[in-house]
Amino acid sequence: MFNLLLIPWFQLHGWPIVGKLEIQPFGILVALGILLGTRVAEWRAQRTGVDPRLIADFLVYTIGIGLACAYVLNKPVYDWDEFVEMVKQPKLFTERYMGLSSFMGFLGGVGAAFLFRHKKGVSITVMGDLFCFAFPFAWFFGRMGCFVVHDHPGLVSHFFLAVDNYNEQGLPRHDLGFYEVLWSAAAVGANLALGRLALPRGFFMAFIPIFYAPTRFFLDYLREVPIHGGDVRYFGFTPGQYGALVMLIAGLVVAYRIKAGPAATIYVNGSDTPPAGTQDTTSAGGTTPSQAPQSGKQGKKKRKK
Fold first, then answer.
1. How far apart, in whole angstroms, are the C-alpha atoms of residue 289 and residue 43?
2. Residue range 220-231, pLDDT digits in tens
3. From the CB of residue 167, how many other CB atoms can be counted at a distance below 10 Å?
4. Would the pTM count as exceeding 0.85?
5. What is the pLDDT of residues 78-128, one digit of tens each?
6. CA distance 72 to 99
7. For residues 272 and 139, what is the distance between their CA atoms, to the nearest angstrom?
8. How far apart are CA 148 and CA 125, in angstroms?
9. Where are the domains of the chain?
10. For residue 128, which of 35, 33, 204, 34 has the smallest C-alpha distance?
11. What is the C-alpha to C-alpha distance for residues 185 and 170, in angstroms, rounded to an integer?
């Protein structure tokens, strides 16, 4: 009877192209998430008076460096012994998949954001706000990719959202990838609803970490141990739980600074226009931030002219 309430087991596999080369469903869904997230960030930028090209450039930095860090740093964080073995035999780096760590990706993305600020003179608060508004749209597809290949096995459970016959081993388990798909759907709805309000720049840069971190922290209590395909523990906690604590603190600090500090401007010089003497990213026919389409009645009046 309980099995009728569970999600039936399924798993998507790669589609062969040539030889051993395959198109992986995880990769397709991650790519779709990046494309959708980028478009949503650009859409949000237009509605909030930010040149969409700025956020597009910002995403090249943060996504590119973030994905690289997620891949390179995953193995030393989650499987140190295997990483040491790979260092001793460098050819293994080309033979073994190192996996992806979400929090190592977040760490790389934050570093990339500071690099972007240094090179372009653009506010992290403004760019981070747009990034975090779009984040759950992309995360929905990213975690859906995890779910369809079942990368994140949880503890054995008869909870009605558990996956039955997990890995065809006869036992139902929590699937942490699926639970984050549900979180993403809720976050998308929350962002769309809150985005209609008059909020200070940086709001979503605080809201999303504060919303995600506790969810991830407590979900990781449902995660399996390495022997069953789960995550390593350090002093009783997963790397993800430590990352969630850092993320929560960061979100609270951002929230405090937004409330206590002056309103954020697009550029670090305190203006919404590019600093004098710098290259205008809109010089090739684009719109400046002040010319960007606006939402609401004001935007409609301008279009009527």
1. 13
2. 999 999 998 899
3. 14
4. yes
5. 999 999 999 999 999 999 999 999 999 999 999 999 999 999 999 999 999
6. 8
7. 29
8. 34
9. 24-273
10. 204
11. 29
